[in-house]
Amino acid sequence: MNQNSAWQSYHRVSTHTAPPGQLVLMLFDGAIRFCNQALSGFNHEDPLQFNQTINNNVLRAQNILQELSQSLDLQQGGELASTLRRLYDYMDRRLTESNLHKTADGIEETITRLGTLRSAWQQMLAQQAATVPQYESCGSLSACV
H/E element holding 132? Predict the structure, then answer.
């Protein structure tokens, strides 16, 4: 098995077995990674590479934003879910503008906003993990009950 195939296999398993909160964190990471790759397209002198690198990676980041938006439960999430949906839609529009006009500002703004959301999400997951009872000292869950 080559290294790329091993990585793809690991990635596939990790996304299928990760808890939902961790999956959201992975989606933020992916969107940020694709935005950074889109920014790298501005360094290409070849017009084809320039356009393809920016376009393809912006589209990938937009797909992730759409997935994040569609996964929101507006009934249960209330105002927070509605606000996040509007923010995801805004970032999607900014990426579209940057892609159409081949400017970096919307991509850079999206990276900043996604970084803030990712940081807050990671903090929330850490706080949740800290409030979950630790069962390691008991040897098993049934021994602690």
Answer: none
- Distance between CA atoms of residues 23 and 21, nearest Å: 5
pTM listed for this prediction: 0.80
Query: Residue 104 in 3-state DSSP?
Result: coil
Distance of CA 114 to the CA centre of its chain: 7
Average pLDDT in the chain:
86
**Residue at 7 is within a domain:** no
Q: What is the pLDDT of residue 119?
A: 97
Residues 6+ apart with CB under 8 A from 74: 81, 82, 85
Residue 38 structural domain: 26-119
User: What is the number of structural domains in the chain?
Assistant: 1
The predicted structure's pLDDT at residue 130: 85
Tally of CB atoms within 10 A around 45: 6
Q: Residues 27, 39: contact at Cβ < 8 Å?
A: no
The pLDDT tens digits for 44-87 are 999 999 999 999 999 999 999 999 999 999 999 999 999 999 99
Distant-in-sequence, close-in-space partners of 130: CB < 8 Å, separation ≥ 6: none
**91 occurs within a structural domain:** yes
Domain CATH number, residue 90: 1.20.120.340
